[in-house]
Amino acid sequence: MKYGVDEQVAKSTEEYVSFLEGKGFTFGNDAIGFIYFGKRYTDASDILVNAAIELTLKVQKNFDGSFYISFLENLKQNGIESRSAAVSFAKEQGLLK
Fold first, then answer.
1. Which one-letter DSSP state was computed for residue 64?
2. Alpha-carbon span 27 to 89, nearest angstrom
3. How far apart are CA 17 and CA 49, in angstroms?
4. Helix (H) or strand (E) holding 72
5. Distance between CA atoms of 29 and 50, rounded to whole angstroms?
6. CA torsion, ordered 35, 38, 40, 42, to nearest 10 deg
7. Residue 70: C-alpha distances to residues 23, 64, 73 (Å)
8. Diameter of the chain by CA atoms?
């Protein structure tokens, strides 16, 4: 696994966002708002929210709040509960190679 990926599973969303900011990603107030709105709206776990953030960044090459919320909703609707299942789902949807 890549550095940081396995650690993200154990991190709270706040810790994960801080971790990413430490790696050079910048999240504006609007992005932070989308992250926490999506988390509350979908009642998603930190693991699922972190995976949605990671995959949004990989697919969109930056943080796109509407993509993130839509993707997080899809994960929840499809019963996805882990990072590995989220990655597999993204591949099945043609979002990742």
1. -
2. 25
3. 10
4. helix 65-77
5. 17
6. -150
7. 25, 10, 5
8. 32
pLDDT 10s per residue in the chain (97 long)? 343 455 555 689 999 999 999 999 999 999 999 999 999 999 999 999 999 999 999 999 999 999 999 999 999 999 999 999 999 999 999 999 8
- 40 CB burial (10 A radius; 0-12, 13-18, 19+): exposed
Q: Which two tokens stand for residue 25?
A: 């990603």
Nearest 5°: the CA angle 2, 80, 7 is 25
